[in-house]
Amino acid sequence: MRLELFIANKLQSSRTDKASRSAVSTLNVAVVGMILAIVIMVVSVAVVTGFKQTIISKIGNLDSHIKVYNRPYEFDETPRSSISFSEELEKIISPKTDKRIRSANLIGEIPCVLKSPNGFAGLRFKGVPDNYDLSFLSSCLTAGKSDIRSHGVLISQSTADKLNIRTGERIDVYFMNEQKIKMRRCTVNGIFNTDFDDYDAYVMVGNLEVLQSVNRWPENTASYIEVKCNSMDDIDSVCSHLIDEIDKEAAEVVRLIFRLFLDGKNRNQIAVYLTQEQIPTPTFYMKDRGRGTCKNKTLNEDNRCKWNKATLTNILTRQEYCGDVVNFKTTKHFRDKHNHYVDRSQWHITENVHEPIISRSDFETVQRILENAPVRRPNGDGEIHPLSGLLFCKDCGAKMHIRIDHRNGGKRHVAYCSEYHKGKARNPKCNSPHIMDADLLMQTIAEVLKKIEDYSISNRAEFEALVKKNLAMQQTDQTKKQQKRIPQITTRLEQIDKVLNKLYEDNALGAIPQDRYELMSQKYSEEYYALKAELATLQEQLSAYENAGGRAQKFLKLTERHAAFTDLTPAILNEFISRIEVHERDQKRARYAIQHISIYFNYIGKFENEVTQLAEPTEQEIRQMREEIEEAKKEKSRAYHRQYSREYRARNLEKQREYDRMKAREYRARRKAQAAAQPAQ
Predict the structure, then answer these.
(1) Cα(110)–Cα(211) distance, rounded to whole angstroms?
(2) What does the alpha-carbon distance between residue 84 and residue 223 come to, in Å, rounded to a whole number?
(3) Are 472 and 547 spatial neighbours (Cβ–Cβ below 8 Å)?
(4) Strand (E) positions, 576-625?
(5) Which is nearest to 152 in space by CA: 183, 124, 191, 188?
(6) Which residues pair with 226 in a beta bridge?
(7) Which pLDDT belongs to residue 432?
(8) What is the 3-state secondary structure (H, E, C) of 511-528?
(9) H-assigned helices in 266-394
(10) Burial 552-584 (b: 16+ CB within 10 A, else e)
(11) Cβ contacts of residue 248 below 8 Å, gap of 6+?
């Protein structure tokens, strides 16, 4: 046996054992590390989930899951707005009838000023009933007890430290009601700390009876109804159920009004229909249910079902019906301190907050109809043509009116330029009536829409490319001016912002009088909001060209909803078409002539290509059409005279025969006289 080989084998075997033991140790360390990482992840998720649930629980206990107001909630609501918890509402909003609801209570909440010997603070007084669950606030108390009976109140620790208030002290609380200041003296029974700075800084809790006495509310009346659900997952379903049940009858009336308007009736016709059907107006509907601003007033019963145009306009333009919440519609003027409606550009709109009563597409169509034809008057036969408000004169841009022509024993809808028919004595902008057969135009529009629908569905990619190309071609010099205008507006807005900040500093330091500050602030604020509105309009117009693909997709959705285009209702026309421009005839005042139209569609603008546009006649075809038209006119004239001759002969047949007999007698007498005279010669 060789010694060298024996030693080498021993060394090799020992190295192999150490490597294997090292690999096993490394594997064990890796497994332990993975286990620790998984454990840490599980603990982290559990901590985050628990923290999230704690936050959700705190928010749910401090505020309500659902608030039921007397009208759509707005931040500028007045303290006088209130709701009564009637028996009808109790049947709908109650834990007994709906197991998803944990509690439902009347809550009063209005601004107030808390005054103590050490200062004052502006807060919101939240009035709750005696049986209200204050267990969460009790757990957050740092001093005192959660007793709100009589005139007892609970304030936050931050408010107590700011005004140096202790439990048991008496404080004065001032309320503003009907331009009068009312004071109530309350006792601080408890001090809480919820760790929510916004809640602690602005809320104090007291008894609902205090606010009822201040506002002279009845017993079952407060600012809103607070609804709390058993689970956060139930909030959406409960909210949808309450929206459907609370004003179910009113929702049906709103849907009826929108449906009648989309079917072609104007607001006056809808008012007549609702009056004939004896449907009560919103004022009487709210009063019957103990709600609204007129619930305590005496109303004339003769006006219960008398609808008018103003009420219907308010309903048709109310954006809340399509699921949105609109805030900041009004603002207080610095002079009279009263609320005034502001421009729509200053509204704060939050979309898709609650279940809609009206679909967004129907609402947008109604707004488009109202914008195109603010006043849709019926013609002499009481009809409103579906194209009313969509036709415009190409030369002067005025709207075209549609009337009925009963000549020649027929009924023909004729469109003509409204500016031309004002009279030449008034120097009209247009020198031609641009008369067009509206019924023939309806057939042409149906043909064009059908062609676009077929082409867009069968060639989606090509259709989107064509839309982008057409939108790019429609960018005119005006669009370039708009692009240059945007930086100018942005610069001016920054300047006004600096000026307003400087004015505020000067006013705070007393450098300018208060009235001068208010006047200048109002002036710059008006300019600021006007520029903001102009900037938003320009950006919307420019983004319309940039988002061509999205606009094509919206138009495709419309074509999928309306495939046949056999019955063109006002709703369908206003969904697809924004305006129709009517050109002058190639021969003025000619009954048979060639006349062009330009159709501008919603979302895609003026869309024309070799497939969708109508065939343009050549010069030879036009000449041939002229000859056919002239021959048709002559043939019509000849046929008229032939028919007239036949009718004339039929009416005067006996007279003609008598006339012929008389002529025959005269002829025979003349011949007889001639024969008798010949022998004498």
Answers:
(1) 8
(2) 9
(3) no
(4) 577-582, 597-601
(5) 188
(6) 67, 105
(7) 80
(8) CCCHHHHHHHHHHHHHHH
(9) 267-276, 282-288, 309-316, 360-372
(10) beebbebbeebeebeebebbbbbbbbbbbbbeb
(11) none
State how far the Cα of 433 lies from the Cα of 588, in Å rounded to an integer: 9
Q: How far is CA 27 from the centre of its chain?
A: 65
Cβ atoms of 177 and 136 within 8 Å: the answer is no
Q: What's the rounded Cα separation, in Å, for the pair 266 and 596?
A: 29
> What's at 33, amino acid-wise?
G
Using DSSP bridges, classify how beta strands 577-582 and 391-393 pair: parallel, antiparallel or unpaired. Answer: parallel
Residue 298 has pLDDT above 80, yes or no: yes
What does 369-438 look like in DSSP terms, one character per residue? HHHH-SS----TTS---TTTTTEEETTT--BEEEEEE-GGG--EEEEEETTGGG-GGG--S-SS---EEH
CA distance 607 to 452: 9
Note the maximum CA span of the chain.
192
Inter-residue contact 244 to 165 (CB < 8 Å): no
The answer to whether 323 and 350 are in contact (CB under 8 A) is: no
Is the per-residue pLDDT at 115 higher than 60? yes
Q: Would you tell me how many other CB atoms lie within 10 Å of the CB of residue 461?
A: 7
Strands 339-341 and 330-332: antiparallel
Contact predicate 123/202, CB 8 Å: yes
Residues 6 or more apart from 349 whose CB is under 8 A from it? 319, 324, 325, 326, 327
Q: How far is CA 233 from CA 228, 230, 236, 237, in A?
A: 12, 9, 7, 8
The pair phi, psi for residue 360, each rounded to 5°, is -65, -35
Asked if 341 and 313 touch (Cβ cutoff 8 Å), the reply is no
Residues 189 and 225 sit within 8 Å (Cβ to Cβ): no
Backbone torsions φ then ψ of 386, nearest 5 degrees: -60, -25
**DSSP code for 605:** B
Residues 6+ apart with CB under 8 A from 61: 136
Backbone angles phi, psi at 172, to 5 degrees: -105, 130
CB 110 within 8 A of CB 79: yes
Sheet containing 597-601, strands listed edge to edge, beginning at the edge strand earlier in sequence: 391-393, 577-582, 597-601
156-196 pLDDT per residue, tens: 999 998 888 889 888 889 987 766 788 888 999 999 988 88
Strand partners, 325: 350
In angstroms, the CA 136 to CA 128 distance is 14
Other C-beta atoms lying within 10 Å of the C-beta of residue 201? 14
Residue 153 bridge partners (DSSP): 188
DSSP 8-state assignment for residue 86: -
Q: Residues 399, 418: contact at Cβ < 8 Å?
A: yes
Would you report the helix, strand and coil content of the chain in percent, each value rounded to 5? Answer: 55, 15, 30
**Rama region for 83: left / alpha / beta (φ>0; ψ in -120 to 50; rest):** beta
Three-state SS at 259: helix
Residue 11: helix, strand or coil by DSSP? helix
Q: Which tokens sit at 508? A: 């705070």
d(CA 363, CA 324): 12
CA distances (Å), origin 285, targets 21, 100, 205, 253, 303: 88, 29, 34, 11, 12
- Determine the Cα–Cα distance for residues 94 and 681; give it in Å rounded to an integer: 133
> What contacts 127, CB < 8 A, 6 or more positions away?
107, 108, 109, 206, 207, 208, 209, 210, 211, 212, 222
Bridge partners for 402 per DSSP: 415
Judge whether residue 69 has pLDDT over 60. Answer: yes
Choose among 260, 300, 264, 265: nearest CA to 283.
300
* pLDDT for the residue numbered 53: 57
The DSSP symbol for 263 reads: T
Say how far apart CA 103 and CA 352 lie, in whole Å: 26
Provide the mean pLDDT of the chain: 78
